[in-house]
Amino acid sequence: MAQSTYQTVVLAQRPKATIVPGETFALKENPMISEADLKDGEVLVEVLYLSLDPAMRGWLNDVRSYMPPVQIGEKMRGATIAKVIASKSKKFSVGDLVTGNPGWTEVAVIADTDPSLQLANIPSNGKITDVLGCLGSTGLTAYFGMTDIAKVKAGDFVVVSGAAGATGSIACQIAKLKGAKVLGVAGSDDKVAWLKELGCDDALNYKAADFKEQFRAKTPDLIDVFFDNVGGEVLELAFSRAKMFSRFVICGAMRIRVQGFLVFDYVKEYASARKELAQWLAEGKIQRKETIIKGGLGAAEKGLVELYNGVNTGKLLVEVKADSESVASRL
Ligand SMILES: NC(=O)c1ccc[n+]([C@@H]2O[C@H](COP(=O)([O-])OP(=O)(O)OC[C@H]3O[C@@H](n4cnc5c(N)ncnc54)[C@H](OP(=O)(O)O)[C@@H]3O)[C@@H](O)[C@H]2O)c1
């Protein structure tokens, strides 16, 4: 007998911390859709697989982000692979496998103008779920993160966190394909064993009691590329083992580029920079303030302590000798 209803999952309440099974989401029964409900240019799809992604937790928060939050009562967002079961589109036929974003649902009507609706091409040696995994957004994330953001090259020492996950496992293998040496970090001994099977030169379980010591021991020549999938303690530890001019791919966070530097890197450009600064100063385009500690050299020690307490506005200096009293001014 044909199904009279289909299920969707809707957001029932916003979680305060982690998702609470049975509270955060609710199953909803909907009257079944049939071919007769389709308008021209639409397809009816039956979802085969739904992708679950860490980003989903963020979509439940009612805050500014790279996409709007899912609303209470709204169907949860998600990428799927689905089969076309009815079509009034010239682009898609019944039986086609398609990727798209119909969300957490058993069936959906999608317009063929929706750019997310794409024919799924399964390559030889592939399976249909690959279009959500290594050929889907996580595989592409690994690809661009490793090749474009990290610019991985032969001889690099690459560390990947969340290495046994969807993105991390592909990132590790791309780094190996590019001739890098790879250390994977993951959350169980089984994952560590699998990472070695994948070809990682080494792998560590971050839940081991002596993980920090092991991490330092396994990074003696420091890190060229760190591909971060999780943030937190492993990322902090990696910062402490970063080589000069290393590239950190912050895959789990926003589109930001964080670049450390020391002013000494610009020694050759000091003269031209001073010229421009002096010009701005002369033209009154930049303002400055100084906090000057009096009392001679003996006041320097206390002054330095006060620096860390924020005693200064603008530049902090000790008046070792007032200009008018200086030897130079008497010459
Ligand atoms: N920039 C982009 O466009 C983009 C696109 C896709 C994904 N991403 C990001 O890439 C990262 C990986 O996503 P994915 O879809 O491939 O997920 P995933 O790595 O397949 O799954 C998440 C994994 O993270 C690990 N994990 C969870 N909590 C952790 C914690 N507190 N500390 C360390 N590890 C933890 C778990 O593995 P363990 O057992 O190893 O802990 C878990 O299996 C996420 O941060 C995601 O947001 C970014």
Would you write up a description of this structure?
This protein is α/β, with parallel strands linked by helices and 331 residues long. It has three domains: 5-126, Alpha-Beta Complex (Quinone Oxidoreductase, Chain A, domain 1); 137-250, Rossmann fold (3-Layer(aba) Sandwich); 274-330, no CATH class. It is 25% helix and 24% strand. The protein contains nine helices and 14 strands. The strands form four sheets. Strands 6-3-4-5-7 form a five-stranded antiparallel sheet, with no helix packed on it. A five-stranded parallel sheet has the order 10-9-8-11-12, sandwiched between helices. It has a two-stranded antiparallel ribbon with strand order 1-2. Helix 2 (137-149) crosses helix 3. The longest helix is centred in the middle third of the chain and has 13 residues, at 137-149. It is elongated. The termini are far apart. The mean pLDDT is 93. The site of NADP nicotinamide-adenine-dinucleotide phosphate (NAP) has 21 residues, from helix 2 and helix 3.
Broad structural category: alpha/beta
Q: Tell me, what is the CATH class of the largest domain?
A: Alpha Beta
Largest sheet composition: 5 strands, antiparallel
Task: Give the mean pLDDT.
Answer: 93
Our measurement of the CA-to-CA distance between the termini, rounded to an integer number of angstroms, reads 107 Å
CATH topology of the largest domain: Quinone Oxidoreductase, Chain A, domain 1
Main sheet: strand order: 6-3-4-5-7
SSE sequence, one letter per element: EEEHEEEEHEHEHEHEHEHEHEH
Rounded radius of gyration (Å): 29 Å
- Overall number of domains: 3
Low-pLDDT residue intervals, each spanning 5 or more residues: none
Ligands present = NADP nicotinamide-adenine-dinucleotide phosphate
CATH superfamily of the largest domain: Medium-chain alcohol dehydrogenases, catalytic domain
